[in-house]
Write a structure and sequence with these properties.
By secondary structure, this protein is mainly α. The protein is built from 7 helices and 2 strands; from the N terminus they run ααββααααα. It is elongated.
C-alpha cells in the first residue's frame, strides 16, 4: 500500500481541495493518532481536520484511493465560510459569541458522546466474545456427552450386525423384509414375520452352501 499512497500524495501535492499526508503513529505522530482515534495500522481517515475524522473503508490500491480523493471537496470552516450551508454558518456565528468555558463544556459534551459510543461498542464486543466462548463450551460438552453415551460402541454393533460388505440378497432382506417385520409387528402379526425371517435365513444359507459346493469354495 505504501507505494500507492506515496503516489497519491504526489498527485495531490498542489491541490487546494485535498491535503493528503501520512503520519507515523509509533513515534512523533503518536499523540495525533490518539487524538483522531487511530487504533490499528495502517488506518486511513478523511474529513475536516477541525472536526471528527471518518474512517475510509474503500479499496487501498491507487485506483480506488484516487477515485475517492477526486470526489473530495474543500470543507467548510472559519476560513471558508462561503462553503458552509446556512445552518452551519448560523451555528458558527453562535459559537463565536460563547465564552471560553462554555465552548469547553460543549466540546467536552460532544467528546463524551463519542467516548460513550466507543465504550458501548467495546462492551458489546466483550459480550459477544463471552457468548461465543459459552456457545463453544456448550458445543464441546454436547459432543462429549454424545460420544460418552456409546456412539462408538453403537457404530461397532451396527458394523457387526450389518456389515457393509453384504451380499445382494442380504441387503434386500435388511432393506425390504426387516421394515416389513416392524410394520407387521405393530399390527399384531409379529409371529408370522418371525417365521418369514427364519425361512429367508435358511434359504440364504442353503443358497450360499450350494454355490460354494459348486465352485469348490466354502462360503
Amino acid at each position: 500500500m505504501k507505494p500507492d499512497w506515496d503516489k497519491l500524495m504526489d498527485k495531490y501535492a498542489g491541490s487546494s481541495a485535498a491535503f493528503i499526508a501520512d503520519v507515523d503513529c509509533t513515534s512523533s505522530g503518536k499523540s495525533l493518532c490518539e487524538e483522531v482515534g487511530v487504533r490499528s495500522y495502517p488506518t486511513i481517515k478523511y474529513g475536516n481536520p477541525a472536526e471528527v475524522l471518518s474512517d475510509y473503508k474503500g479499496g487501498r490500491d491507487f485506483g480506488s484511493l484516487d477515485a475517492f480523493a477526486s470526489k473530495l471537496k474543500q470543507p467548510c470552516g472559519l476560513k471558508t465560510l462561503h462553503l458552509c450551508d446556512e445552518e452551519t454558518q448560523g451555528r458558527i456565528a453562535d459559537w463565536q459569541k460563547m465564552a471560553t468555558e462554555d465552548l469547553d463544556a460543549l466540546i467536552k459534551e460532544k467528546e463524551d458522546e463519542i467516548a460513550a459510543a466507543d465504550a458501548n461498542f467495546k462492551e458489546a464486543v466483550d459480550n459477544l466474545q463471552k457468548r461465543y466462548k459459552e456457545l463453544q463450551d456448550e458445543k464441546e460438552k454436547t459432543i462429549e456427552a454424545v460420544k460418552g453415551s456409546g456412539l462408538a460402541l453403537l457404530k461397532q454393533v451396527k458394523g457387526y450386525l450389518y456389515p457393509y460388505k453384504m451380499g445382494t440378497l442380504e441387503k434386500l432382506y435388511y432393506t425390504v423384509a426387516s421394515p416389513v417385520e416392524n410394520v407387521l409387528g405393530q399390527i399384531g402379526l409379529m409371529e408370522p414375520v418371525r417365521h418369514f425371517g427364519k425361512a429367508m435365513t435358511s434359504m440364504l444359507s442353503a443358497g450360499y452352501s450350494g454355490i460354494g459346493k459348486a465352485i469348490g469354495v466354502e462360503l
